Amino acid sequence: QVQLMESGGELVQPGESLRLTCTAPGSGFAIYAMAWYRQPPGKEREMVARIVVNGDVDYGDSVRGRFTISRHRVGNVSYLQMNNLKPEDTAVYYCNIRTNLGGFWGQGTQVTVSS
């Protein structure tokens, strides 16, 4: 079992920025892709951003141009830079990875955008 840990979620005002971090400590596995999903209150989970080993990046339509996903191999770290946050970005954000051991989810971190 790969234990993912998300951090960085907090209460911010509209227009502000926030960076989320996902870490997958340990060794003995290879990460093929890292992704961020979110689940707004009362709604279904949706894909936010995904990056694969060849560097290809996908973004959800609602965040394209505002959010940026990046990956640092050392420490198996993924970042989600969120700019120009809007109230509709309020959600629990989840880290997801695909590895040679299977797929894994983090516990989520709450992002609230409100004045």
Structure overview:
The protein is built from no helices and eleven strands. The chain has 115 residues and is mainly β. The strands form two sheets. Strands 2, 4, 5, 6, 9, 10 and 11 form a seven-stranded mixed sheet that branches. The protein has a four-stranded antiparallel sheet with strand order 1-3-8-7, with no helix packed on it. The radius of gyration is 14 Å and the shape is globular.
What topology does this entry show?
Elements: E1 5-7, E2 11-12, E3 18-23, E4 31-39, E5 46-52, E6 57-59, E7 67-72, E8 77-82, E9 91-99, E10 102-105, E11 109-113
Parallel strand pairs: 2-11
Antiparallel strand pairs: 1-3, 3-8, 4-5, 4-9, 5-6, 7-8, 9-10, 9-11
Structural class: mainly beta
Oligomer: single chain
First-residue to last-residue Cα separation = 39 Å
Rg (C-alpha, Å)? 14 Å
Mean pLDDT figure? 94
Give the tags.
single chain, 115 residues, mainly beta, seven-stranded mixed sheet, four-stranded antiparallel sheet
Describe the structure in brief.
Strand 9 (91-99) and strand 10 form a beta hairpin.
